[in-house]
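Researcher: We plan to redesign the surface later, but first we want a full-length starting point. Tokens attached.
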């Protein structure tokens, strides 16, 4: 239960940040061009709001019912009057608030048909502060601002990660134990212990290795048994097959069984094992990594076995009796103390191109993965808030939090640019149409398209979250 709460908290904090930045992009460009922003809300607020602040009256309200269209219209008239007197737009023109459904947020732009479907304001004479009164290029930037700010946020986060944590990685060609592969990977022709060398003939850069792109390639070359170079052909639509099988991890570094420290009065200590000993076999069964060692030891619980141990330059044989749980009682030497770890530290100026590159690569990878969405299994893999929350770790980790938040910011930017009515991309399509034809779509067209887009988004939201429920409770 605690882990679910921590995941949920991380999700809400991340989404809150992303929504505020996204809506601020719209808000800022509206302010720059003198367009009225009537409301700026974090979270949705049907019927009532948790908190509102109206700078015109300087009043805070809590658990207040939402204002009616007539009340909104009266306030808008006051804002227009102040603008007519001063000739300037102000942050005081906007009501700020927090809703009670933590699934998004919005900025209500004056003189615009949006998800609020506030028709009363559209019946008023066109005012200089109205969205509809501005030239198409200004309206374009107002609608594009949210997408732009989300992508900039992702880049800023990646820059911060580079500055604070840098890069630490194990070069694939120096991981002498190779990799362990999932069942589908083994069926495709990989073997446990293979060392990755090249993708389509290009040497792997471990610092920038992209597994998604690698599994979309034609072949991956590996070093097998320390001496043979083998080309493994990647099956067609391999990523889709991995997704169908529900495989979350394609491969992992193999961990050699090296003793870090024995536990007092446990079989390992009684057998005389020392720190630095590497167990390479149990009786006649080779155990080059923990993935072979653990099940073999379990099969010999409470039985005397002969361990083949490498100690320095020597190979010795040690008798030991695993306990009833198949354990010898020692701590494993961690991966980063066995394989060489390369660390790259970034200065502020070096982190900027790194952040831009990471953000761009994440966007390209995500866009490339969408082609699998239009398949039966791809549609079934669509997830809602449960799937997004599952991305976060069970224990709070700032590194993981920022990595995932940056990834979600890229997704939010791309999803909002899609040409779907009710999304930013839908509004942008109409603006581009106007710029190209010099003809403005009628308000009826904008209104009906908004309604259709909202209906589609509601359907998609229900479908995605229903998939989560089905996978969690049934599948």
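Model: Full-length starting sequence:
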């Amino acid at each position: 239960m605690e882990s679910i709460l921590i995941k949920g908290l991380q999700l809400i904090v991340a989404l809150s940040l992303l929504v505020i930045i996204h809506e601020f992009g719209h808000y800022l460009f509206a302010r720059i061009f003198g367009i009225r922003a009537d409301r700026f809300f974090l979270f949705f607020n049907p019927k009532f709001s948790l908190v509102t602040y109206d700078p015109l009256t300087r009043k805070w309200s809590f658990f207040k019912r939402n204002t009616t269209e007539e009340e909104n219209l009266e306030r808008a008239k006051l804002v227009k009057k102040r603008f007519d007197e001063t000739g300037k737009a102000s942050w005081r023109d906007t009501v700020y608030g927090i809703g009670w459904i933590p699934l998004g947020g919005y900025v209500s732009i004056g003189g615009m048909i949006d998800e609020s479907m506030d028709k009363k304001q559209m019946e008023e004479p066109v005012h200089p502060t109205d969205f509809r009164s501005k030239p198409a290029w200004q309206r374009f930037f107002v609608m594009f601002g949210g997408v732009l700010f989300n992508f900039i946020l992702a880049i800023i986060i990646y820059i911060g990660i580079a500055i604070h944590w840098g890069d630490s990685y194990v070069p694939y060609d120096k991981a002498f134990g190779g990799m362990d592969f999932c069942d589908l990977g083994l069926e495709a022709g990989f073997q446990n212990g293979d060392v990755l060398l090249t993708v389509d003939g290009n040497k792997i850069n471990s610092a920038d290795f992209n597994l998604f792109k690698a599994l979309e390639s034609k072949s991956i070359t590996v070093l097998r048994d320390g001496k043979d170079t083998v080309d493994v052909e990647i099956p067609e639509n391999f990523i889709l097959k991995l997704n169908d099988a529900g495989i979350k991890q394609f491969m992992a570094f193999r961990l050699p069984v090296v003793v870090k420290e024995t536990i007092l009065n446990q079989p390992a200590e009684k057998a005389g094992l020392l720190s630095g000993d590497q167990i390479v076999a149990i009786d006649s069964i080779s155990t080059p990594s923990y993935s072979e060692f653990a099940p073999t030891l379990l099969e010999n619980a409470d039985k005397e076995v002969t361990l083949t141990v490498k100690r320095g330059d020597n190979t010795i044989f040690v008798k030991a009796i695993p306990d009833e749980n198949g354990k010898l009682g020692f701590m494993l030497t961690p991966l980063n103390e066995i394989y060489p770890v390369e660390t790259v530290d970034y200065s502020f100026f070096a982190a900027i191109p790194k952040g831009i590159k990471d953000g761009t690569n994440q966007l390209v990878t995500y866009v490339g993965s969408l082609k699998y969405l239009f398949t039966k299994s791809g549609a079934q893999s669509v997830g809602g808030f449960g799937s997004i929350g599952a991305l976060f770790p069970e224990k709070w980790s700032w590194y993981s939090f920022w990595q995932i938040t940056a990834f979600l910011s890229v997704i939010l930017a791309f999803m909002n640019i899609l040409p779907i009515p009710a999304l930013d991309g839908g509004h942008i399509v109409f603006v581009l149409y106007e710029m190209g034809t010099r003809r403005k779509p009628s308000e009826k067209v904008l209104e009906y398209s908004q309604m259709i887009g909202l209906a589609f988004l509601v359907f998609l939201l229900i479908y995605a979250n229903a998939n989560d429920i089905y996978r969690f409770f049934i599948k």
